[in-house]
Amino acid sequence: MVKSKRFEGKVVIVTASTQGIGLAIAERLGLEGASVVISSRKQQNVDAAAEKLRAKGIEVLGVVCHVSNPQQRKELILKTVQKYGKIDVVVSNAAANPSVDSILQTKDTVLDKLWEINVKATILLLKDAAPHLQKGSSVVIISSIAGYNPPPSLAMYGVTKTALLGLTKALAAEMAPDTRVNCVAPGFVPTNFASFITTNEAVRKELEDKTILKRLGTTEDMAAATAFLASDDASYITGETIVVAGGTPSRL
Ligand code: NAP
């Protein structure tokens, strides 16, 4: 039960937010009072998710935005500003993981897609959003536990997520003092994206056992950490990554 209202009067954009972690983040921030702008590639997913959030009393605008489409990124920002007049929070959550190949076996086109969606789109979206970001605004980038120690089956994806840890630090310096930039590195969460967990009981058990808390993460766990970093409760925190992975080894 969400009781605090840390985002009253705030305008929040969350990319890739029609299901999974992105939708949970939109819901959490919306229940805490934000006007939320949700987006993903497919209109029908945008409409369905917007409906779900409205049914919970959340003020929501739905916009189709494939994050690697320059025109759709611009529309996302434009429609947000046309409707709400400003942007307080951007959560960059979209990612692709198109291959399980080893790094040296990954096709050139797949490498391009990974960098394009997982890293470059975040930068370009923030470039478009920057002129509208308010004093006291905040960016949260969604990385992954795989960014700390890329596992063989997620190696290249993991490396793009490592890049987001550096991007967070560099942008925090660049966008200070008006905008804070932080990052959340989720552990494994059973969503469509992580179908290797949801479809394979042995893999699921192995990943649960790697955590200290002996369970997988939930989308709500990720939303809670994102809400903290995006809120004024974290007003003296920037350039940081919170690992939300039940104690799965990441770093000292
Ligand atoms: P998910 O449940 O599969 O949801 C993916 C969402 O992204 C959907 O709303 C999808 O809607 C949208 N989407 C996909 N490609 C997009 C694109 N190119 N542009 C815009 N929207 C797009 O995924 P998830 O597990 O929540 O993952 C969200 C983030 O968490 C990703 O950055 C992922 O790397 C990270 N993460 C996940 C896990 C995990 O175990 N699940 C662990 C660590 C990190 P449409 O199909 O309509 O586009």
Automatic annotation (TrEMBL):
Pfam families: adh_short_C2. InterPro entries: NAD(P)-bd_dom_sf, Sc_DH/Rdtase_CS, SDR_fam. SUPFAM superfamilies: NAD(P)-binding Rossmann-fold domains. Belongs to the short-chain dehydrogenases/reductases (SDR) family. This is Tropinone reductase-like 3. It comes from Vigna angularis var. angularis.
